[in-house]
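#struct-help
A.M.: can someone run this one for me? Single chain, 188 residues.
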Amino acid sequence: MATPNTVASNEAMTSCVMFENEAGTTTKPPKSKNYLKIIEYNLTRPIEQGPHVPTNTTPDGDTPKAVDDYDDADNRMLVEDNKAFGVLSVCLSREIALTLRDYTTSKTLWDALVNKFEGNLEMRNSRKGMLKGEFNMFNYVHGETIASLISKFETLITKINSAGNEYEQIEINDKILNSLPYSGVAVS
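D.P.: on it. Structure tokens below:
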């Protein structure tokens, strides 16, 4: 019979393997926050909004709560903060973790990961421009199979969507249809 420690260890290992597939490795950037939603839906909150700071609202403004005054909601959100940070940090490769050891919240760690692998705003905009050019120049290469052409096109569209570029479906359809090789058969 498995001990609680063994079960927890197996769950942690499974979680790390799933995270590596979703978040990347030393050569792959993180893919999305969706993995954290799989573990627990609320784990994206600390990444998007930052750590929860329990406060009391007074006429003079918000003041930090004493630990003894934390309510259930505060405790739950603090657990989510720690869990999100733990999932992100534990599953990083040693090489990446060493370069990011100064980040102490899930939001700052996530932002650093995104910046490290996707680059700053200027780099992301440059990548968008390059993908737009690749889309505009996409065409059939003599001798290429239709399956290969479609596979390359699907990969390009996935990259374009991941970068945040958007094309209307009609533009996408027109591009792939116009990229198909000419068959030489007259149609009447």
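A.M.: thanks! The two ends are 74 Å apart (CA to CA).
D.P.: also worth noting: The first helix runs from residue 4 to 23.
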